[in-house]
Give the backbone structure.
Amino acid sequence: MPEDTISLIQENVIQGRVTRDDEGMDEGMVGQPGVTELVEKALASGLSIKDIITKGLSGGMNIVGQKFEAGKYFIPDMLASAQAVGAAMEILEPYLAGSGINAKGKIIVATLKDDLHDIGKNIVSILLRGAGYTVKDLGNNVDIQVIVDAVREEKPQFLGLSALLTSTMARMADVIQMLEENGLRDQVKIVVGGAPVSEEFAKSIGADGYGADGFQAIAVVEALNSGIEN
Amino acid sequence: MPRKGILVDRPYERLTREQVELIHQASMQILTDPGLISFNREAVDILHSHGAAVESIPGDHQSWQVKIPEQVVLSAMNSAPKTVKLGARNPDNTLIMHGDEPRVYLITGSETNIWLDVDFPTYVNKTDPTREIRVPEFKPRRGTVDDLCQSAHVCEHLEMVDGYIRTVNIQDRDITEDNKDVNKFFASLNNNTKHFMSGLTSLKQLDNVVRMAELIAGGKKALEDNPIISFITCLVKSPLQFVDDTTETFIEVCRRGLPIVVSSSPQAGTTAPIKEAGIMAQINAEVLAGITLGQLVNPGTPVLYGSVPVRARMDTLGDSYGSVETSQYNIDCVQIARFYGIPNYSTSGVCDPKIPGQQSSIERLFSDIVVTMSGPQFLHCAFGLLDCNSVFCLLQAVLDDAHFKMIEFFLRQPRVDQPELETMLKQIREVAATPQKLYISYIRPLLRSGEISGVYPFEGDGEADDVFELAYERMKELLARPVEHIDRETTARIFEEIPGILPRLNIYESGS
């Protein structure tokens, strides 16, 4: 019953269940296949990648977004669903070429040198994966040179920089300057965020976008991505 | 099932057991030296017939010096019930108060003369006329019976309000000394199904309001079993005086066996010593004298140990309910009442400013938290009251309800046991092994179980402070929600048997 599998994928995205061990929103779901098991099953059944992604994963996330807007879902619910989609996209990545689905792009994220606060960056990573992006997370306390090298080697469309401290926030400007010095600035859109960062600051250092929170970060990346595609 | 109230796991106490006993002993000494002055002859006779020494005081007023021996007090205290039930029109709103159990019921009140209306006019920035802001404006006016109906209506829907003391004095042109009691009782009972407590304006109306309660409860016996009304009297005027008329009212209520609060409200610095030991010894003596009188009138009368101590303001010598010492005195009284095993009527949330704002929030929340933590059974927590109980603002009552919800959450008992810790250890180990090291997924099962406190309910979207506007919207929402009125047949009987109730309060006849 291929259609059922797609529906189940969508339902389990809504439930935020990555694997069969997850609880989900409703009672009694532990033990039933989660999104990853259902995607594996869908692939084995020969279902189209496009249907799995557009009807199952994106369809589920759209409903999750509506529930969040209506105040029925909270951020932990959104993150659980995004995690489920992210896990599914990892399984599907090898099949994307030739599926008619374009990969949304790659983004490198990092928290800057001398800053160990990475909760925000981790949440943004989950949401980006849930939105269909390939995320390379460099971690926290990351040296500027490591970021520049990663941009050169990975050739991402986006670079996301996070800081919680005013002292490390200033290093975002250093990253942009070093990317310019290395002739890499034009290759990547840079989005910054973190508690002390503001839109004005982002503009002042020449960043391409600013996200006040995880959801805004996704919206900014989506908007920039739309610009790239156009 | 009675209401749950807030069960305080380990109540906050300021005094040691030895200090409480010292205060008790000092109070006993006060009751014999100097004793009390009574301006009520009947109280003197009752106390005298049970062993009090009585001596007439020369002067214009008829007054007597009454010295009550310790044995008389202790004997009377033995007959005072240690558990008091306050019934309600809706039995689910019954309050059961055990003197030794720190379960806190939150009650509105008390009577204010001024009702504060709220409006939100728009102001334009002089230098930038494109910028507008809505600012709350508070307009005081005399309270009316319609206001009382509105207040009772909203308090019916306020989740944290366990019982209702009327919040506003009705001052309509057609309200007189003779019909005030029946109208305030009917307006409150008809718009609120929780327990109703009140003082009496005229003793002549006592039997009318008791009859009204009997009709609503279903008869005399039904009212005994489910006392939907109770009374409060300030029979003691500090320092150490039985007032004539309120003592007479007190005696008559006790004769009818209905629950009553023996209340004393000394002001530290003027009518009581400002030092903690002194005001405690005095207020305890005053309340014990009242309880003793009540038990001698009718042994077994359900009484609450009513303590409303307050410190004087040093600039005006008015009451300063917002002072820190006032909370200290109240907490001490809770502990002393618990020493006797008699349910305590305490006070919190009374504040000094005239309108809602930062000062009122800070003062009321401070005392609301600390006095609740001390575990009084009946906490008159001044929902909506301002200006030392002179002003009532319905908007403030809505805010207070939200704040008490936070206090209730704060006082929940912690769950720390072996199974819980084993679950937590498993969770910690699981998360430690993940790359992102986030516990967020474990929040989900708790999100809708009530185990996680909510955000502040009146938080605005932007940087503007929208608290008052959002609370106002909530207030209107609660006013639009229906209440369960007294049924048509009972209403008809009440209007037939009880004289003086304003016809416009009959919702079945007035079309309102």
In short: The two ends of chain B are 33 Å apart (CA to CA). The CA atoms of residues 429 and 435 of chain B lie 12 Å apart. Chain B has a mean pLDDT of 95. Chain B has two domains: 6-16+78-410, 420-447.
